[in-house]
Amino acid sequence: MQKYLSLFLFLVLVLGGGLLIGYATLPGEWYASLVKPPFNPPNWIFAPVWSLLYVMIAIAGWRAWRWNPASPAMKIWGAQLALNFLWSPTFFGAKLMGPALVVIVLLLVSIIAFIIRVWDREPLSGWLFVPYAAWVAFATLLNASILWSN
């Protein structure tokens, strides 16, 4: 039972935190007024994609935590979550596209570092982060393109 309680807490932290930050920093008129590249997805796609990714991030973190709560992998996991939660307030809240690009590049590096760190010991956690890495790589390109165009 305690195993599932800890999973629930990871889900609440990650999914709840991500959704709360997402709602607090909705794109709004400023984002709508920006020049965006032709590969910019429709706005409705972001919430379901991020919700699924947040569930995967939580499960990966929970699995790594169960293996060793004080491991370097968990420190990296915590860093990527902090960077993830920082990006929206930087980009949408403060409207700072340049600093947001720095944040998202650091986020991508931390995601890749987590994958590398857990790959041998906890490969499922690594695989759960692969779609996350792909999405954040795409989001990095999108952030850079919007910065360049505006």
State the shape: globular
Indicate the percent of residues in helices.
over 70%
Mean pLDDT metric: 96
The total of helices stands at: 6
How many distinct domains?
1
Helix and strand pattern: HHHHHH
Give the percentage of residues in beta strands.
under 5%
Measure the end-to-end span.
51 Å
Poorly predicted sequence stretches spanning 5 or more consecutive residues = none
CA radius of gyration: 16 Å
Please tag this protein with its features.
mainly alpha; 150 residues; globular
Secondary structure blueprint with pairings:
Layout: H1 2-24, H2 28-32, H3 46-67, H4 72-93, H5 97-118, H6 123-149
Helix pairs in contact: 1-3, 1-4, 3-6, 4-5, 5-6
Describe the structure.
The protein has one domain (2-149). With 150 residues, it is mainly α. It has helices at 2-24, 28-32, 46-67, 72-93, 97-118, 123-149. 81% of the residues lie in helices and 0% in strands. Helix 1 (2-24) runs antiparallel to helix 3 (46-67) and helix 5 packs antiparallel against helix 6 (123-149).
Give a summary of the structure in a few sentences.
The chain has one domain (2-149). 81% of the residues lie in helices and 0% in strands. It has six helices and no strands.
